[in-house]
Design a protein that fits this description.
The protein is 33% helix and 23% strand. By secondary structure, the protein is an alpha/beta fold. The chain has two domains: 172 residues, NAD(P)-binding Rossmann-like Domain (Rossmann fold, 3-Layer(aba) Sandwich); 101 residues, Dihydrodipicolinate Reductase, domain 2. It is built from eleven helices and twelve strands. Strands 3-2-1-4-5-6 form a six-stranded parallel sheet, with helices on both faces.
Length: 297
Amino acid sequence: MKQLKLGIIGLSEGNGHPYSWSAIFNGFNKAVMKTCPFPVIYEYLSKQRFPKDAIAGAKVTHIWTQDLSISRHIAKASNIVNIVTDYQDMIGQVDAILLARDDSQNHLKMSRPFLQAGLPIYIDKPLATTIAEAKKMYSLEQYAGQIFTCSALAYAKELTLSPKKLDSFGPIHFVNAITPKYWETYAVHIIEPTLNLFKTKTKHIKSASTHKSKQITTTSIIWDSGLITNFSALGQSATPIKIEIYGQNKSEVLVFKDTFFAFKKALEEFIAIITKKKKPQKKEDVLHLISIIEQGL
């Protein structure tokens, strides 16, 4: 099978994914990556063994950002050969697109030409913050599964439990999930892993309420199953991303730690879908997730 060519689009404020995602495919230049404005990226990349730990079968070959100097720096840091000055120029040059920006208000505009051209596209989290906006993007799909979107934390090993481990809690009635930063961009990091953990218990919302205080947003949901979930984005408060599970037999706090592992697994999932090794994600699951994000706005 030929090596896939990927185009990557950046850069939104506070989001270093064009550096990290590209490096996970391409490897990286240590000297240049040290000057990346997101020090944590060099920190976790330097702990890996490249090229052994790179994703096989694909390379990021093209990049666009809104600033040519930023594009050049990412290209040098993450071994990207081609820089384009118009992201639409990637059409016909690449096999798939990584829309590595979390400013969801720009996702529809930026994804439109690629969706219309039939290119598979991984759209960074969240796809949208409203159901209406998400449906506009899905309406542009040329085939089912053309869009892939997720929080990479949905693939974090720390936030995943086996059925046996979940059973060991006994009946679970309360889950409290917390993230730093802001609801619009970071709530997805706690909502998606929680929905994955409790798929059968989070299908239908009985009632929901949202409370805001300064930088903090908390959305509480009572599900038809009886489970209660609290999702809180704490703004600039110092906290790890964590999910607290309270069962009849015991409680446990799941704390996210391994960014590289989660990012790599999410990107591998996208490649597996493109190459038909895995089925596309279900649009209904994404819309369900977005309905909770919208509740918290």
